[in-house]
Specification:
heterotetramer; A: 109 residues; alpha/beta; 3 helices; 33% helix; globular; B: 134 residues; alpha+beta; 5-stranded antiparallel sheet; binds adenosine-5'-diphosphate
């Protein structure tokens, strides 16, 4: 699948954004908008990359921006990663040192 | 040996198509899944740089972006060329500066030079088998 | 033809010495003042990157930094090699990310590859006369 | 001259820092300290590069940091450049786009 999809909702007070498929400079505006929607009123944001097949450095830029937002308002940002440890998404976060920067958990998708 | 040549508009929506094309090339060469994803990411980053940095906002419409892939004896060489203003640091870049070091980390070698049309040519060489120490 | 080879400790205080040495090389080749200052700045940035990024804080003491200059038919080639951890983006870099694009802007071509000892080799090629369009 | 020298003082309420010679990663700690000394009590900082023969991107990083400081406290930062338009320092600021970012004047040094 080479499409991309973004789902955003609030559940039990948590803002949840699910990325599916491939995400890059073309989808970061939608991602930013989705985060803006769920951010209001949620102290905890979950970004679920369990079904994300690709992300580039511009998406990482949005994730880091979100982490700064979260820290400024003493909120929490959690990144959920594909369970497959060989997934490209995991490797990209590892190469950029971001596995150590984010609060990272395993996705159940 | 040339494996791929695509000319495209330097627009964000085009990058996914480049990744798909370069994946096809990599699969035909029998690259491992990890190498394949490295080639995709590096190529994607180089195209994104051309789209974001090579052209002034108003000039992207007339801009060009060419992606070439060629097989060397034991390597895949991917070249991304724009016809833009040439590489230079931009203090007001909204990016995090991850692109170039990421490409350098993903490739066996990275060459940056002026393109034939005055823009930037980014040439990335990848091994066909994974290096012993990843 | 090799013009210079210096091995030094990857320490901030050493960079001025590298600039002085590479200036001597450039003057001997009759570079214009502008080319000379471009070569100095690019070489300085490559050394600084090796000093700042190649080694973990505790390991710089045992680190190496080698600067080579060689003359090609119509170019000066400067190579800066460290024995560090290899190039990769570092999200916590305190720098502005100006170094690599600045080197690319200053040089005719920039090559980044793994060094023989596993670190990073940065090869910068400069023309011996200024390009027609600066 | 390949040495480097930093002079810092307050004059008529302005914080003045004069860089002479070559400045790089080895001299940025001293530059930061000098700026810290003159910053207190001065709304206007002048950094005089009139006798500066070389600066690298780590010095530019300090200058940009100082500009942010200045903006945060609604202060002013002025960079004085060598009169020689072919000076390496001017070219470095030009290449990095900083001639357009800083309030730039000509040095009388
Ligand atoms: N194709 C290009 N054309 C012009 N400038 C470029 C190009 N690619 C990169 N650059 C310059 O190099 C800088 C560093 O690029 P990169 O490491 O990808 O970081 P980022 O894109 O996050 O700024 C960019 O900010 C830009 O100034
Ligand atoms: N010799 C090197 N060894 C390891 N990593 C390096 C080296 N040179 C550059 N890098 C990586 O490339 C990134 C970009 O370098 P540069 O453009 O000079 O920006 P900065 O030094 O301001 O971060 C650095 O942050 C670092 O992660």
């Amino acid at each position: 699948m080479h499409g991309s999809q973004i789902e955003a909702f609030v559940e039990d007070g948590d803002g949840v954004v699910i990325l599916r498929g491939e995400h890059d400079i073309a989808t970061t505006p939608d991602l930013r908008a989705a985060l803006g929607r769920v951010r209001t009123g949620s102290d905890r944001i979950l970004i679920d990359l369990g079904a994300c097949e690709f992300l580039d450095s511009s998406v990482l830029g949005v994730l880091i921006g979100e982490l700064r937002h979260a820290r400024e308002r003493a909120g929490v940002l959690i990144i959920l990663l594909p369970r497959d440890h060989a997934s490209p998404v995991r490797r990209t976060l590892e190469l950029t040192g971001l596995l150590d920067v984010f609060d990272v958990r395993e996705s159940v998708i | 040996m040339r494996l791929l040549r695509i000319c495209l508009a330097p627009q964000p929506e085009e990058v996914a198509m480049v990744r798909q094309a370069i994946s096809g090339v990599g699969e035909a060469l029998g690259l491992s899944p990890r190498l394949l994803s490295d080639v995709k990411l590096a190529t994607s980053e180089a195209c994104t740089n051309a789209i974001v940095h090579a052209y002034e906002d108003g000039e992207r419409g007339a801009g060009t972006l060419v992606v070439l892939a060629a097989k060397a004896p034991d390597a895949l060489v991917v070249t991304v060329t724009d016809g833009g203003r040439g590489i230079a640091p931009r203090i007001d870049s909204t990016g995090l500066g991850l692109g170039l070091p990421l490409i350098a980390a993903l490739s066996r070698s990275l060459v940056i030079r002026e393109g034939p049309g005055g823009g930037t040519e980014v040439e990335m060489t990848f091994g066909l088998v994974e290096d012993p120490v990843p």
